[in-house]
Specification:
Helix content is about 45%, strand content about 20%. By secondary structure, the protein is α+β, with helices and mostly antiparallel strands. The chain has a single domain, classed as Reverse transcriptase/Diguanylate cyclase domain (Alpha-Beta Plaits, 2-Layer Sandwich). It has a 5-stranded mixed beta sheet with strand order 2-3-1-4-5. Strand 4, helix 4 and strand 5 form a beta-alpha-beta unit. It is globular and about 45 Å long.
Amino acid sequence: MPFVTVDGDDIGRRLASCYLSNDVGALISTKELVELKTQQVSELLTDAGYEVLFCAADGVTAYSQESNLDEDKLYQSIKGKVGDELAFSVGIGPTLREAYVALLYAKSTGKARACSFSSMERKCLE
């Protein structure tokens, strides 16, 4: 049963910029955009047969009973849903912990990519 964890990239920096520039409008717009994109990713995963375990802030975690996961197709679907407005990194693994480790690896090797725990040493999908 593969787990998938999706997390927004640089959302904290974007929020910090709103606070530091005292831009209430930008803060509200950022909040609305992040909520929309996170919900869209959650719905995409649900429609693909995943059970969403967590959907809040800028992250979504889900799992599937299906063992054959097309990681590239999944990432391209997420990327297509999110568009160019935000970037997300994705970690995939057979356990919740391994999906999270893969997510950390994706973020530490460039962000805006998907990494599978089983293939972390080979490559991540961009």
